[in-house]
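Can't paste images in this forum, so I'm doing it all in text. The chain is below; anyone willing to post the predicted structure tokens underneath?
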Amino acid sequence: MASLMDAIGAKTQVIIVGDVDQLPSVGPGRVLSGMIESGMLPVSRLRTLHRQAGETMINVNAKRINAGEPIKVDNTLKTDFWFVPEEDKDKIPGVMVQVCRRIPETFGFTLDGIQILCPQKKGRIGTMEVSKALRPVLNPNGKPISGLVYEVGDRVIQLRNNYDLEIFNGDIGKVRGLSKDKECLVVELEDVHAARIVNIPLADLEDLQLAHALTVHKSQGSEFPCVIMPVHTTNHIMLQHNLLYTAVTRARKMIVLVGALKGVNTAIRTLDSSTRWSNLEKFIVDGVFIQTRRGPSSRLNVGSEMQPRWLKASEACAHISVSRNTLKRMLREGLVGERTPGGHCRVDRESLDAFFERGSEKALAIVRSLRQ
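Text version of the structure:
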């Protein structure tokens, strides 16, 4: 985010689109929630899940999960939200195999339209074990490729950006076989517009992984016609409401939860327990809450209005010859400027100049007291 901000021009309008209710980034920081919580940026919220039409059960239960309420389940052929109970974690992969076999013939989904999402990689219901169990079902006609762990027809995912091949972290595709010279694995990548073929050198296959089952984290930003997710208390460390919400909202037409209802309820009740300490809100407030008007030479031609410019607090302090703490106290105490919906004060240059140029005893006394 810092690199993006450095790269764009001062006149560029930036629109950030995201879902603060989903999982936070894998790396440190809380950029989106920090920008929202600063109270300094205009925010619009979409309350409807447009991935599903109307008040589908996916939509209803996504809202209930966010609100900390138990899900509603109606396992009938008309519903798009299913829960298949299985308390024994060792039996869950077998139940998922049965579910995968029944879905195409019962609901008309193709095997390519089914995606398994797991809370984590390791464990009996982690991606590695589940991928092995579901592979014969999701790739029934797979043909082994000599010397490799992949079979023709396997779904795979790229784990790192490869700018030379123009394939990036999170790209999903299907294995088509080896190249004619046996030096590359041929992968057909799913693309928004059309599938494309990429020859991945065998030396770069360490960045490739089976994707019959993905972690919920890896699925963010994607959508699938049908999602199947194992949920059990054995994954209690990962069971949080934002993880369950993210998984449910990846499904466009159907979601099937397989496992223990106790695990589902645990996830719904559990907020993100990993507190992330960030000063981003403070930096935003300190850096942009002093508003001045641009001079005629730097006016932005947007209609007939003159657009305001935000200065850093240090620049405003230099203009009125006070310390940073003094300026913050003046704003906090309402001596200049006006209160915004975010709870902060905005002042322009004219307001600051007027305050110090009045020369009244009251103004001088206030300044002296603040500087003590």
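Confidence is low (pLDDT under 50) at residues 288-311. The longest helix spans residues 92-107.
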